[in-house]
Structures are given as structure tokens and as C-alpha cells.
Design a protein that fits this description.
The chain contains 10 helices and 7 strands. With 287 residues, it is α/β, with parallel strands linked by helices. It has a 7-stranded mixed β-sheet, with helices on both faces.
């Protein structure tokens, strides 16, 4: 992918130059953390053997692998993402698994001309909150679905419902100050935290039987120090650190205080931290 596509140029640059490379470096940890969300998503979507599935924002391919196993050799999965670094990792993972029924595409799902009516299911794990024009994007996705085709995705609920983000963000903001002002509902991890807003988008894009429900889930964290390190890289606190670029001494202070905060989270039976979180589970059908 050599050129930044429009109208998502800012997201293309973020996921190719900033967030995507970070994710690749931490992929094993991040995918382990989000495994419970994959379980929710696959349970809700219920992909069937032989189905054709469009995955929006496939990232490093963890969900793609599970979709490929679900649809089997007679089905197919097309994983779409704008991040070349993440797609490269996904390609390696699919190759190692021998998942020939899964293909990858470097493209902007908001504007890419997918084959009309080619898919029974469109699915996304945290990949749909970054569209510059979400109604246009979901219209494009709807056109790729067969009549009655299913849409299922997971998006993040608000920061107040996700203490694994809220607590380190409060620490970062106390030391670094507030972020630059942004328009309401700008593309980003929290853009779809309002259920009514998401319902309106999907209805305007040509979907029906729309449900958007907050679901509590426990993420599988690592140790407190490792979670503190991740909090300086990802989520709202990571975005603030990226914006403010603190020096090494201030980064060390952030890490120390975040480590102490994460140490107060409960532990999992097998080790690691239990991180309470809330996701918005959305489902709909193409009219």
C-alpha cells in the first residue's frame, strides 16, 4: 500500500506509521488480552461452514484465523485493513496455519468497491470506529452483503465503563494536561460508544433489525508493570503520551504511577490481571 487513501488519510498514517507498528511489536500480548472479545464476537456472528465473510479491520489476523476455521475449506474470508505492518503479520499467521480460504486486502473499507452481494456476513473487532464518514462506509459494506446478510461488530464503550483505560488516562492527563480539542465523535476507539448514534448510522446506511448492547467482559491482562507499559502505548492514555511526547523522566513517573494503579486490579486464577471492560456489541441485517 503505497499511497494514503482518502478520505481516511489520517487513519492511514496512524495505522501505518504509529499505532500499527506498535501493535505488531505487542501483538502476542494484545491478542491474548482481547481473546474474550473474539469469543463474544464469534458467538454473536455464528459464521457457518461454506459462508463468505468480509472482515473489516482485520489487523494482525487473530479473528481472521478463527473465521477461517469456522467457514472451513468450502467457505472464504476476506480480511481488509489499511495497516500494511499489521497485514504483513496477518499474512504470516495465515500462512503458518495453512488457512488458504482466508485472503487479505490492503484497502479502505469505506470506499473500496467490493463485489456486490458477495458476502453472507460482515464482521469487525474494533475496526469500524475509524471511518471519516461512517454512514458512507456502512453503505459500502451493506452493498457487499447479500440481501439479508448479517453485520456484527464489537466497538468500545465509553472510557468510564473501561477502567483499564480510565485509570491510566487520568494519571497521564494529570501529568501531561488535556489533549488537543477534537470534534465530537471524531474517528477513534471511543467513536461508537453511544448506542443511539450507532443505531442511527446503521439505519441510514441501509440496515435493519439493529441491536447495540453494552456487554461486560474481563480482559486478560499481564503483570502491573507490563500493563503500565502498554498504557503508555495504546488507548486514550497512549494517544495522550504520543501527542505530548514527555521526556524520559516523566515517562518513568507515568510508568511508576500506572504500575501502582494496575497492581490494585484483581488477579486471574492462572496469573495476570483481570481487567474489567465493556464493549458495544452491534448486530444488524442488510435490508
Amino acid at each position: 500500500m503505497d499511497e494514503a487513501p482518502t478520505p481516511n488519510e489520517a487513519q492511514w498514517r496512524n495505522w501505518n506509521e504509529i499505532s500499527g507498528p506498535k501493535w505488531v511489536r505487542a501483538a502476542a500480548v494484545m491478542e491474548g488480552r482481547l481473546a474474550p472479545v473474539n469469543d463474544l464476537l464469534l458467538s454473536e456472528a455464528a459464521p457457518r461452514p461454506g459462508e463468505q465473510v468480509l472482515e473489516i479491520g482485520c489487523g494482525a489476523g487473530a479473528t481472521t484465523l478463527r473465521l477461517a476455521a469456522a467457514v472451513g475449506a468450502t467457505g472464504g474470508v476476506l480480511g481488509v485493513d489499511i495497516s500494511a505492518p499489521m497485514l504483513a503479520l496477518a499474512e504470516r499467521s495465515l500462512g503458518e496455519a495453512g488457512a488458504a480460504q482466508a485472503k487479505l486486502l490492503a484497502a479502505d473499507a469505506q470506499i473500496h468497491p467490493f463485489p456486490a452481494g458477495a458476502f453472507a456476513l460482515a464482521l469487525s473487532r474494533f475496526g469500524v470506529m475509524f471511518f471519516a464518514d461512517p454512514i458512507a462506509a456502512f453503505r459500502n459494506i451493506a452493498a457487499a452483503l447479500a440481501p439479508g446478510g448479517r453485520l456484527v461488530f464489537a466497538a468500545w464503550a465509553g472510557i468510564e465503563a473501561n477502567p483499564h483505560w480510565e485509570i491510566p488516562y487520568a494519571i497521564a492527563r494529570r501529568h501531561l494536561g488535556p489533549p488537543k480539542p477534537r470534534p465530537p465523535r471524531s474517528p477513534g476507539p471511543l467513536a461508537f460508544s453511544d448506542a443511539d448514534y450507532v443505531r442511527d448510522i446503521l439505519a441510514a446506511a441501509g440496515f435493519e433489525a439493529i441491536t447495540v448492547t453494552p456487554v461486560a467482559v474481563t480482559l486478560a491482562g499481564r503483570g502491573a508493570a507490563e500493563e503500565a507499559e502498554l498504557a503508555t502505548l495504546f488507548g486514550p492514555s497512549g494517544a495522550l503520551v504520543e501527542e505530548k511526547r514527555p521526556d524520559d523522566a516523566l515517562r518513568a513517573t507515568l510508568h511508576e504511577e500506572m504500575t501502582a494503579a494496575f497492581a490494585r486490579f484483581p488477579t486471574l486464577p492462572g496469573g495476570g490481571l483481570a481487567l474489567p471492560a465493556t464493549v458495544m456489541m452491534a448486530s444488524a441485517r442488510r435490508r
